[in-house]
Each structure stands twice: as structure tokens, then as C-alpha cells.
Automatic annotation (TrEMBL):
This is Dihydrolipoamide acetyltransferase component of pyruvate dehydrogenase complex. Residues 1-76 form the Lipoyl-binding domain. Forms a 24-polypeptide structural core with octahedral symmetry. Transmembrane segments: none annotated. One of its GO terms (molecular function) is acyltransferase activity. It comes from Halomonas aquatica.
């Protein structure tokens, strides 16, 4: 038997609330399968399991707040015998019948019922995708993300001074961000480097690439930026990892945290996995999927723990440059500003050219300026010679 524990989904996460089980005792699970949903200060996270087996028992009920490291479930491996009896009080969460009107009953999980109430949705109007047509938390979130067109209605009133669920979630996220950034500036000796580069070659490459594709198939410039960062990390891996227990723990792959501003306020930085191995179209699809799920509160636990370096891009907001704060325990952050026409010297002549500023914030406990400069030089080379981003 092995134990499945509450994972740490952020630098300052101490506990999370298990809001929904996607499995029950006796179910077979595979490595990487999403088995539960955990609510944290940064939203609802789909939690994956990292070993295959049979669910022997669930140790936590839906709605229960659980400290990081606490046992969530017991998994029986291949060849192991099932227990002769289950422990007393074992929770077996499952969708339960819930009356929705006279003579009408439906099946909906407690977590889905709670979320529907928060969003003001009538479960009787939802379509369930669970067993026997039961309504799951995912069904509720999907309904909220794609509402049917209807006339504008006044927002429901709340008692004076009492925050709504949305306000509470936003406040919790701001607290989590404040804690992480305070820890970062307190513990991490930042050093900053920057460079200004002409991106005319990259924009020309992008225009040629998109010219042969439909609007839905086109790349956006941040895809090239992320690719350049990923390839630069191949050459300078010292910036890709985490400072833990006084030493650098290198990341096993190039998984880039992508800073995403949420519509309700706050931000998250989930990992774009294997950014150094994705073809252009695959990277665009992965980025689009990440943006969509981040704004629907449907991120996965691995996406909040795997990033070895974070990239933030504020150019679309008109920012010229970014001097970012490292997200601990990561050791570096790359920031991109806006692309704008600026004076540039070409062949001895001053011309107007599309330029942008890129910055690096790095942890001086792990690297020095020479290493950071080598990284920025490689990043600059890749964006000024874009044919090297995806070599034949």
C-alpha cells in the first residue's frame, strides 16, 4: 500500500480544501490521472496522482481542509491484496440525490452543489457528465464559463460590509501573492540585467509563418519569446530550478511558468511543459489551453509545481520594461516589455525599428552576473535570428 498526500501547490501553501473526488474506492487510477479537486488561495486545482494502482480507501471527505503532506488516500499497488475491512468512518464521496423541486430529483456532488449556489446557478438546468448523469464540479464550472445569452440583471445584494464569495477569493489570492513576494524580497538577493533588442527579424519570420495559415492557426509573438527563453535555458541551465535547503535543485525539464493575469484580479504562473521540445503549432495550442484553463480555475497540480523559471510579459499593457520579483523557490524570472518603434543603428545609419526590452531577475545565491549575461546574450541571438528557434 502507498499513501497519496496533499501536495504543496505554492511557495506559501500550508493547507487546501478538498472540494471533490473524481474517484471512489475500488477504482483503478493511472499515473498522471486527475483524482481530485483542491481549493487553494489561487483557485480550484485539478490534482494528479503519480503512481498507478487501485484506490483502497479515501481518507478525506469533500469539503475538508487538509494540511500539506496529510494523507488523502491509500493506493493499492499491483499484486497487493485488498484489506479485509475498511477503517471505520471511511469516507466514500459520491454524488448524492438532491431535491430540486416537487416530484423532481437529480444527482449532484456536494462540491458541485456548493459551487452552483455560489455562482447563482440552478442545478436543475445543468447537464451532468458524471456516472448516471450526475452533475460534477466541472459541469458547474463549464456552465458558468459558457452562460446562455440573457438580459442583464442587477447583481444580487449582500448585507452591508459582507464580502461576496468572489471578493473573498480575490482577497485570499492577494494574501497568497503578498506572502510569496514578501518572502522573495526578504530571502532572495536579486540582481537585475537588461537588454534592448531589435525584433524586426522575429516579426518578419512570424508574418511569413502566419501568412500561410488561417486566423485560428496563427502564432502570437509571445510564443517566439517563450521558445527563445526555453532554448536559452538549455545553454544556461543554472537558471532553471529551485533553491531548496541551501542548494540549487535543477529542474528535470524546461517547464516555463507563464504569468497570467486573471479577470477577477490577481495572477497565477502555471507551467508550460517541455517548452524546448514543442513545435510551433503545439506550443501555441498548449499556451492557449493554459490561458483558458487558468481563467476557468481548472489548472492541474503539476502545472503549479513544475515551473523552473517564470516569464512575465507586460508589453500588451504598454509597459516598456519589467524588473520582476522571483517566485520562490525558483531562482530566476524573465520579463518582456512592449514592442515599439525606437531609434536603432543599422549599417551606420539611425533608423526606426521595432525594439523591445528584456530583463532578467536572478538569485545571487545561485548565479552571478556573468551567467545571467550569457543567458541574455543567447536569448537575444535567438530573437534576432529566428530561424534558429525551430531549426530544421
Amino acid at each position: 500500500m502507498s499513501e497519496f498526500h496533499m501536495p504543496s501547490l505554492g511557495a506559501d501553501m500550508e493547507s487546501g480544501t478538498l472540494v471533490e473526488w473524481n474517484v471512489q474506492p475500488g477504482d483503478r487510477v493511472e499515473r498522471g490521472q486527475i483524482v481530485c479537486v483542491v481549493e487553494t488561495q489561487k483557485g480550484a486545482i485539478d490534482v494528479e496522482i503519480w503512481e498507478s494502482g487501485i484506490v483502497e480507501r479515501l481518507a478525506v471527505e469533500e469539503g475538508q481542509k487538509v494540511p500539506v503532506g496529510e494523507v488523502l488516500a491509500v493506493i493499492r499497488g499491483a499484486g497487493e491484496e485488498a484489506g479485509k475491512e475498511t477503517p471505520a468512518g471511511q469516507p466514500t464521496p459520491a454524488p448524492v440525490p438532491d431535491a430540486s423541486g416537487p416530484g423532481q430529483r437529480l444527482r449532484i456532488s456536494p462540491a458541485a452543489r456548493k459551487r452552483a449556489d455560489e455562482l447563482g446557478l440552478d442545478p436543475a438546468n445543468l447537464t451532468g457528465s458524471g456516472s448516471d448523469g450526475s452533475i460534477t464540479l466541472a459541469d458547474v464550472e463549464q456552465a458558468a464559463a459558457t452562460p446562455e445569452p440573457e438580459p442583464e440583471a442587477p447583481a444580487p445584494q449582500t448585507p452591508a460590509g459582507r464580502p461576496t464569495a468572489g471578493h473573498e477569493a480575490h482577497a485570499a489570492m492577494r494574501q497568497a501573492i503578498a506572502a510569496a513576494m514578501t518572502r522573495s524580497k526578504r530571502e532572495i538577493p536579486h540582481y537585475y540585467l537588461g537588454n534592448t533588442l531589435c525584433v524586426e527579424p522575429a516579426l518578419s519570420w512570424l508574418a511569413a509563418y502566419n501568412g500561410e495559415r488561417s486566423v485560428a492557426e496563427r502564432l502570437i509573438f509571445p510564443v517566439l519569446q517563450l521558445r527563445a527563453v526555453a532554448m536559452a535555458l538549455q545553454e544556461v541551465p543554472a537558471l532553471n530550478g529551485w533553491f531548496i535547503d541551501g542548494t540549487l535543485r535543477a529542474a528535470e525539464g524546461v517547464h516555463l511558468g507563464v504569468a497570467i493575469a486573471l479577470r477577477g484580479g490577481g495572477l497565477v504562473a502555471p507551467a508550460l511543459h517541455d517548452a524546448d521540445r514543442l513545435a510551433p503549432d503545439a506550443m501555441m495550442a498548449a499556451l492557449r489551453d493554459l490561458l483558458t484553463r487558468a481563467r476557468q480555475d481548472r489548472l492541474r497540480s503539476s502545472e503549479l509545481t513544475d515551473a523552473g523559471l517564470t516569464v512575465t510579459n507586460l508589453g500588451d499593457l504598454g509597459v516598456d520594461s519589467v524588473q520582476g520579483v522571483i517566485y520562490p523557490p525558483q531562482v530566476a524570472l524573465v520579463g518582456f516589455g512592449r514592442t515599439a518603434e525606437r531609434p536603432w543603428v543599422r549599417d551606420g545609419q539611425v533608423v526606426a525599428a521595432p525594439c523591445l526590452q528584456v530583463s532578467l531577475a536572478a538569485d545571487h545565491r545561485v548565479t552571478d552576473g556573468a551567467i545571467g549575461a550569457r543567458f541574455l546574450a543567447r536569448l537575444t541571438d535567438l530573437l534576432t535570428e529566428p530561424d534558429r528557434l525551430w531549426p530544421p
